[in-house]
């Protein structure tokens, strides 16, 4: 069927109200698809919905950054079908795609669909060509066009940012507190207060502009900017504070509105209860009406804002007109005399009253400047946030700043006036109380009693000065209601964005949105409740400083975010807005902090205390988000710089710490090895679990890349501080060898190899034994300290994991659930409910109770280091001086919480005639090393010949691997030696008889003295290369550690790791 110009597939996603069209090029020729090509176009069923597996779009979900990639270039959760090649711009069929914006979108992009480019493996591996003749215009293959039913309501920079910011800045302070501010601070300091506010907001705006033009900005305002820049810890803490500040701001603006209404009621003798309670009543009624407008949707709210702006502009113009209209007698008596130099001269200097200071007045005024984030708070509802926010916000600051300075009435109204028309100067009277004396009025009565008029006393000065008073009342209503409305919209939007990111899981309830604009109805209700609570305070001068602290804290972090991102010099920091400076941003952050403490030091401490607690909470909870924050970038820079600094410093014995390569394979398969290595290195040194994937590199590459991230995530989720690494090689030895040579970076280089004992060495082939012993030889060659762990039950539990499905709990001690097997061997499997793990697929039940018991013992032994070790001893058999590693590692274990109840017992070899002397010398050495011990034992009978029973055990152990050439004819012996060069000859056994006897004897002594120890540490014997047969060496290690508690064989690199010098 031809697909020219037709929809190939249309499907309604009814849960997301999104229509998805798969289009093909209208100009395609021969557009008939084969059955195989149709197979490329199938839709996969995911979570009950049919979606294209390559694309995903959601407007409701928070943005998801693809921070994890497997080796094939795409996440493990994504499934790829065979891609068709297309005719490219280069004129031939190719899988390569031209650069396209859709390759760089997030999974939750709402502005377009996400496409996934071909992976490097798809291009590099053998290509199975499936050609579809598409033109270069559609070389993405098939496109997804997303059409929103009804669509979002999106705003431009004027309606969405400029108008909103101006309305929020021209708030309650403009009409009912600005005159009081200039009365208290005077014209000089009043201008300073306004300019200081402008400086703080302007610098913050520059920083905000840089941040918001460094990528797509979604809803969330200050929270979104800070969290995506500094990370969830800072963003989550300031997000709650900022949302709360906006909710309290609603109360402040509503109280300002209510004050004006109550003043009108008082003038008309219409007070309902009393002044304060009337403010509460009017405020609560007002906030209910505002809530109704907000819930109606952003479109209605925007229309209301435009209407209010028109009223506000007319009211401001009315004030300027009123100042030049000649004052009436009534206005003169209330202190208004138009523009006069004497008035501005008198009002220039400050006259703080009622305990006010410069900073207390600044604290009351500053909320008037805090509307700069009104546009950013609805960034998700803007058409182009990157362009709109800088332009609209800076212009709003400039316009409102000029307005505040121009509307200041210090040149027209005196500080105190009686309002009495009869308080005029009678001929012959002297008057020097104020500049009003120059105009025939004597307000000296205000010196002894509180007057009701003038800059200091009348909050409705602007109404009196204006050309038409009712317009100012309307302007006051407009300013307060518009600011309250903007804050009432901002707070839920910010809170919703915070809740969507699921940083505080208990707040997820408030993330849900409603309607085509995803309105946060639940957030509106919460904001309403907070606003009503603060409206009941009914005192504007009390509410304003609370908001000032919270907003200043937010501004400080926005400025610091810009500085931090610039300082990190991450290649991803490329803001389109260039008019910013990192040091100016830092100055802005410090200025905000200083102003906070000067305004009210205890409130500032409280604000930062709350922020610190929230920061700690988020840090401890570790939300599963990764936004590529500048904190990560700076951490990386610090790590690189510190590594370089370390590289320039010679190592010192006092700073030695074990840095281990641990051959665990998949980390979860050898928990005992992993847990013990973690105990040795946690907070001390480097820990690198290594998995060597054996086989062809081509065959193992996919497995290696796929598992790399999942194993690291497993380590992280199980709180193992380790760096998982994997190599693909034809053998375990070659893989380990390559890692031993190349591992590490500068001083962050491993110095210790940790490996499990090869328990099945007698059943393994000669090549496997040669490889295992070869790893130990390689470690000695490269001067690694070497540690071998042996547990009698074994270390590898991979077969148990495979048999019982995919574990979902981190603790292997719970692994076999209630697998007690006492009388009812399969009871847990039958009951099911008591099981502490879940199966990802059908489980393979044990074949017998005996097998189940074996598995239980294996799991118990493998998980013993995860539990707290009870009281007991760690027995250290320090037989050979290897630099001190054999003593240092058990000491480190005793510093761990799990091992703190274990005491060190040290065993050394000595001569029969000097036991006491050897003991005293060791006591002196340990005292100088400052290593605590419970007991020192000198073993004087190490050289005694082992018992015949022990010798028999050893002989039986090596019997299958001996040549016995002495009992055969020479030709036959030579043939055997040629066919099995790895076998142990009689000559070799005789040459190393003494060393063999030593290992057997040591096992007897260990059985006698350390059978009850929690852990045994023994100096590891060394086999000379090319001299000791591999099977003989394995027999030494086996007989030495046979039938013992968990045993560590340790051999340092014979360089001192202990010192008694300071």
UniProtKB/TrEMBL annotation:
Reactions catalysed: K(+)(out) + 2 chloride(out) + Na(+)(out) = K(+)(in) + 2 chloride(in) + Na(+)(in)
Annotated GO CC locations: apical plasma membrane
Domain Amino acid permease N-terminal positions: 84-132
Its membrane topology: Multi-pass membrane protein
Taxonomy, superkingdom: Eukaryota
Classification via Gene3D superfamilies: Amino acid/polyamine transporter I
Pfam families: AA_permease (PF00324), AA_permease_N (PF08403), SLC12 (PF03522)
Entry keyword set: Cell membrane, Chloride, Glycoprotein, Ion transport, Membrane, Phosphoprotein, Potassium, Potassium transport, Sodium, Sodium transport, Symport, Transmembrane, Transmembrane helix, Transport
Domain Amino acid permease/ SLC12A, chain residue ranges per copy: 160-661
MF GO annotations: sodium:potassium:chloride symporter activity
Occurrences of domain SLC12A transporter C-terminal (ranges): 670-808, 850-1062
Transmembrane portions of the chain: 161-182, 188-217, 238-258, 278-297, 306-327, 358-380, 392-414, 468-491, 521-540, 546-567, 579-603
Cell compartment(s), UniProt: Cell membrane
Main location: membrane
Biological process per Gene Ontology, one example term: potassium ion import across plasma membrane
Entry's family note: Belongs to the SLC12A transporter family.
PANTHER family recorded: SOLUTE CARRIER FAMILY 12 MEMBER 1 (PTHR11827:SF93), SOLUTE CARRIER FAMILY 12, CATION COTRANSPORTERS (PTHR11827)
Name of this chain's protein: Solute carrier family 12 member 1
Organism: Denticeps clupeoides
Gene: SLC12A1
């Amino acid at each position: 069927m031809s697909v020219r110009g037709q929809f190939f597939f249309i499907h309604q996603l009814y849960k997301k109200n999104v229509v998805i069209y798969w289009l093909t090029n209208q100009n395609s020729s021969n557009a008939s698809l084969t059955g195989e090509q149709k197979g490329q176009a199938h839709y996969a069923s995911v979570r009950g919905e049919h979606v294209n597996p390559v694309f995903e779009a959601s407007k409701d979900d928070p943005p998801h950054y693809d921070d994890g990639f497997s080796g094939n270039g795409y996440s493990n959760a994504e499934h790829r079908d065979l891609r068709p090649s297309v005719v490219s711009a280069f004129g031939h069929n190719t899988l390569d795609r031209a650069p396209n914006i859709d390759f760089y979108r997030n999974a939750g992009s709402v502005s377009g669909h996400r496409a996934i480019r071909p992976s490097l493996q798809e291009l590099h591996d053998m290509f199975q060509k499936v050609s579809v003749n598409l033109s270069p215009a559609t070389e993405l293959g098939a496109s997804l066009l997303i059409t929103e039913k009804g669509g979002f309501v999106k705003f431009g920079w004027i309606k969405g940012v400029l108008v909103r910011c101006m309305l929020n800045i021209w708030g309650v302070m403009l009409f009912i507190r600005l005159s009081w501010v200039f009365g208290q601070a005077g014209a000089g300091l009043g201008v300073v207060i306004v300019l200081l506010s402008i400086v703080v907001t302007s610098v913050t705006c520059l920083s905000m502009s840089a941040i918001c033009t460094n990528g797509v900005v979604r809803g969330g305002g200050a929270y979104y900017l800070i969290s995506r820049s500094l990370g969830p810890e800072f963003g989550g803490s300031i997000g709650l504070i900022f949302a709360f500040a906006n909710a309290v701001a609603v109360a402040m603006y509503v109280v300002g509105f209510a004050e004006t209404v109550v003043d009108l009621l008082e003038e008309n003798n219409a007070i309902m209860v009393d002044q304060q309670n009337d403010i509460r009543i009017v405020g609560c009624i007002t906030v209910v009406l505002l809530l109704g407008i907000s819930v109606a949707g952003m479109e209605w709210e925007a229309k209301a804002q435009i209407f209010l702006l028109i009223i506000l502009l007319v009211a401001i113009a009315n004030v300027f007109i009123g100042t030049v209209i000649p004052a009436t007698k009534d206005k003169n008596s209330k202190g208004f005399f138009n523009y006069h130099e004497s008035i501005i001269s008198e009002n220039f200097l400050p006259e703080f009253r009622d305990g006010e200071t410069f900073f207390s007045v600044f604290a009351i005024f500053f909320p008037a400047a805090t509307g700069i984030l009104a546009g950013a708070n609805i960034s998700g509802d803007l058409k182009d946030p990157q362009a709109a926010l800088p332009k609209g916000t800076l212009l709003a600051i400039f316009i409102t700043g000029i307005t505040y300075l121009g509307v200041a009435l210090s040149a027209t109204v005196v500080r105190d006036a009686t309002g009495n028309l009869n308080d005029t100067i009678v001929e012959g009277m002297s008057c020097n109380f104020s500049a009003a004396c120059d105009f025939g009025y004597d307000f000296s009565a205000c010196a002894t009693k509180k007057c009701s008029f003038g800059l200091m006393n009348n909050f409705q000065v602007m109404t009196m000065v204006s050309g038409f008073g009712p317009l100012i009342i309307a302007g006051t209503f407009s300013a307060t209601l518009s600011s309250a409305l903007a804050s009432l919209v901002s707070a839920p939007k910010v809170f919703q964005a915070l809740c969507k990111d699921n940083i505080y899981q208990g707040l997820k309830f408030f993330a849900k949105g409603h309607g085509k604009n995803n309105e946060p109805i639940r957030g509106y209700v919460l904001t309403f409740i907070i606003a009503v609570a603060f409206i009941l305070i009914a005192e504007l001068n009390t509410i304003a400083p609370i908001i000032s602290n919270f907003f200043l804290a937010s501004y400080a972090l926005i400025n610091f975010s810009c500085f931090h991102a610039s300082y990190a010099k991450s290649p991803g920091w490329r803001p389109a807005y260039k008019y910013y400076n990192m040091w100016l941003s830092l100055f802005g952050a410090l200025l905000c902090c200083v102003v906070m403490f000067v305004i009210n030091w205890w409130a500032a401490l409280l604000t930062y205390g709350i922020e610190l607690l929230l920061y700690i909470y988020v840090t401890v909870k570790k939300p599963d988000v990764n936004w590529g924050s500048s904190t990560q970038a700076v951490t990386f820079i610090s790590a690189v710089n510190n590594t370089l600094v370390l590289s320039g410093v010679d190592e010192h014995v006092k700073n030695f710490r074990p840095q281990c390569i641990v051959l665990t394979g998949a980390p979860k398969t050898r928990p005992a090895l992993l847990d013990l290595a973690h105990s040795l290195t946690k907070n001390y040194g480097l820990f690198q679990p290594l998995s060597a994937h054996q086989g062809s590199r081509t065959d193992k590459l996919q497995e290696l890349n796929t598992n790399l991230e999942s194993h690291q995530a497993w380590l992280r989720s199980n709180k193992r501080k380790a760096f998982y690494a994997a190599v693909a090689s034809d053998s375990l030895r070659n893989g380990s060898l390559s890692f031993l040579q190349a591992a590490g970076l500068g001083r962050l280089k491993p110095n210790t190899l940790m490996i499990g004992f090869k328990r099945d060495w007698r059943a393994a082939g000669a090549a496997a034994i040669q490889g295992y012993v070869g790893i130990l030889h390689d470690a000695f060659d490269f001067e690694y300290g070497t540690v071998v762990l042996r547990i009698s039950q074994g270390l590898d539990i991979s077969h148990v994991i495979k048999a019982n499905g995919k574990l979902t709990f981190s603790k292997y001690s719970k692994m076999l659930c209630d697998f007690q097997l006492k009388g009812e061997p399969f009871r847990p499997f039958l009951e099911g409910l008591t099981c502490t793990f879940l199966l990802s697929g059908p489980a393979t039940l044990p074949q017998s109770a005996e097998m189940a018991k074996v598995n239980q013992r294996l799991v118990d032994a493998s998980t013993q280091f995860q539990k707290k070790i009870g009281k007991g001893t760690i027995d250290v058999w320090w037989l050979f001086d290897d630099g001190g590693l054999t003593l240092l590692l058990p000491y480190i274990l005793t510093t761990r919480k799990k091992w703190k109840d274990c005491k060190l017992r040290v065993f050394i070899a000595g001569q029969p005639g000097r036991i006491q002397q050897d003991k005293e010398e060791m006591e002196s050495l340990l005292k100088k090393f400052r290593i605590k011990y419970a007991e020192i034992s000198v073993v004087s009978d190490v050289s005694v010949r082992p018992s015949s029973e022990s010798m028999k055990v050893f002989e039986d152990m090596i019997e299958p691997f001996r040549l016995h050439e002495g009992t055969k004819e020479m030709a036959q012996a030579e043939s055997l030696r040629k066919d099995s060069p790895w076998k142990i000859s009689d000559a070799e056994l005789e040459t190393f008889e003494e060393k063999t006897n030593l290992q057997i004897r040591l096992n007897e002594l260990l059985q006698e003295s350390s059978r009850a120890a929690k852990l045994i540490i023994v100096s590891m014997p060394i086999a000379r290369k090319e001299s000791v047969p591999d099977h003989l060496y394995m027999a030494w290690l086996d007989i030495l550690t046979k039938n013992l508690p968990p045993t560590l064989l340790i051999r340092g690199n014979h360089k001192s790791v202990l010192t008694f010098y300071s």
